[in-house]
Specification:
Radius of gyration: 13 Å
Helix content: 25-40%
Largest sheet: 2 strands, antiparallel
Number of helices: 2
Shape: globular
Number of strands: 2
Length: 59
């Protein structure tokens, strides 16, 4: 288990996993991805996408 990871799902297709990470800042997100997730054996690359929670309040 990696601290900060809330969910992980196996996928079929181009990507192998979808991992939901919760971080309080961009710096914390960077540390989780660079120092923790990318250090997991078998992780060769990653793509980080962020959710904009502000869009929910605009509906």
């Amino acid at each position: 288990m990696v601290d900060g990871v809330e969910e992980a799902h196996a996928l079929y297709g181009v990507y192998d996993f979808l991992v939901k990470v919760k971080a309080l800042s961009i710096e914390e997100l960077r540390n989780i991805t660079r120092l923790k997730i990318k250090q997991v054996s078998g992780v060769n690359s990653s793509l980080t996408l962020m959710i904009d929670d502000h869009m929910d309040s605009m509906r």
